[in-house]
Design brief:
This protein is α+β, with helices and mostly antiparallel strands. The protein contains five helices and seven strands; from the N terminus they run ααββαβββββαα. The strands form three sheets. A three-stranded antiparallel sheet has the order 5-6-7.
Length: about 160
């Protein structure tokens, strides 16, 4: 687990990052457990922030998993293609139209926007699984049926 205070303090004390990447002016790092979300106002600033984070993670004997990492543009120029951001080891990070962070799908658009399609699919899959087991058109109240079954099994003494 990353000591988040140590990570943030070291990034704040990094003179090169403070001058070149403007950590306190429109650039943000969101940390939760081992998930890191970098927000920057420009592509070049994002790449500088990525490299600073990589240097800090290298100091902690950690690396960024490039297979799970991606870039996403939000703003009026979100459809404009731009050069790939590369890690310090030379691996390019792909630009995507949708990304998942902490279970929330964030989509490329003019303004910040989330997609709830995956959550809806998951809900309907679960609901249909339950309905497949108990049936949709039960003529009686399921709570009453389960309460009477509980009463019969727990409270009624065995002969």
């Amino acid at each position: 687990m990353i000591n988040q205070n140590h990570f943030k303090n070291d990034l704040n004390q990094n003179d090169d990052l403070a001058v070149n990447c403007q950590l306190h002016n429109g650039t943000f790092i969101l940390l939760y457990a081992d998930d890191i979300l970098l927000l920057a106002p420009s592509v070049t600033t994002l790449e500088k922030l990525l490299h600073a984070c990589e240097n800090e993670l290298c100091w902690l004997d950690m690396i960024i998993n490039t297979k799970k990492s991606c870039c996403l543009r939000i703003g009026p120029r979100n459809h404009v293609s731009c050069a790939n951001i590369t890690t310090l080891s030379g691996h390019p990070l792909p630009w995507t139209s949708e990304m998942r962070y902490l279970g929330v799908y964030i989509v490329r658009s003019c303004k910040f926007k989330c997609s709830f399609e995956a959550a809806k699919r998951s809900f309907y899959r679960s609901a249909n699984s339950i309905f497949g087991k108990i049936g949709r058109k039960q003529p009686y109240n399921l709570f009453a049926a389960n309460a009477s079954l509980l009463h019969y099994m727990v409270l009624k003494p065995a002969p």
